[in-house]
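Hi U.,

Before I forget, here's the chain from the pilot set. I'm dumping it here mostly so it's searchable later in email.
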Amino acid sequence: MHLAIFKVNHLGDNVVFLPVVQALRRRRPAWRLTLITAPHVAALYSADVARDDLLTVSPERLKTAWHRPWELAAWTARLVARRVDASLVSYDQNSVAHGLAWLTSGRPRVGAAGLRIRLAGTLTHEVARQPEWSMARWNWETARTLVTAIDGGQDWPAEPPRPDLTHLIAGTTRHPNRIVIHAGSKWEYTRWPLDRHAELAGRLAGQHEVIWVNAPETRCALPAGVQARDCSGLAELTQLLASATLFIGNNSGPMHLANAVGTPGVIVSGPSDPAWDPSWDRDRYQVLRAPGLACLPCDRGHFAAFRCTNDQEPLACMRRWPVDELEHRCRAWLARWSAHA
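Structure:
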């Protein structure tokens, strides 16, 4: 069996998808897996997918490939040459990914139901997300449908396990007094204000080792005592997160990565659907949402609003959290989990 897997997206989406690939590798070792994913997250899969079977393309490049017919034809030829038997198309993939699966693989072609894409109807099996499912669980159940269609899938576990990131963090030691802050996320409306993150970092730096992760959207003047860190790649970021006793940030890719390596966290979640809350060890996380806002969540499941929808009080879900409140919660949470580090 040769399976093509389409998962070209951002960091958090891939972290919560990784258990699917790892389970397929461990439970179906004879299957060949071709994974189409984004370059900046490929290291997540490097222990489970052969180098020659790890094909990378940026999300925007794949999404707009229909503007460049020669490029689309090259991708089609590349996958046809691989003689793919079946395909798994993640819920967040665009029409180009669905079209490539349709043109280049056999049956089954399994993916998500209810997508807002131009090219619908190309899958043989569609899996709808249930209200109580996390995004990791939706990935898991979609994969269950795939293996059931192929070989019965009787051995597929009930719940998705935590991703195994040993290949990225082997030898990393957790520091009992270390706090890592990543103040970024993909969209501006999902970020607690940068100046408040920086003020919080300064307050905590007096008693703790506070490391601030530099990203394009997080670079700013930092208070004395806060250590700025540039991470050269995914492995370095993962190791840094695994070395901390507390992660502070937004609902973001780094949050999901911290969750995957078992680091407790305090998160201002704002507009994010609860389906995007940490998928494992939920008791280790304080996920903060402003109470009493009828607009929440403005992101519904995997459908993002891409902007604040509260015209009366813009970004209220983020701005209603003062620094004093975050400081109190972070100190209490750090005290609780330092004993376990």
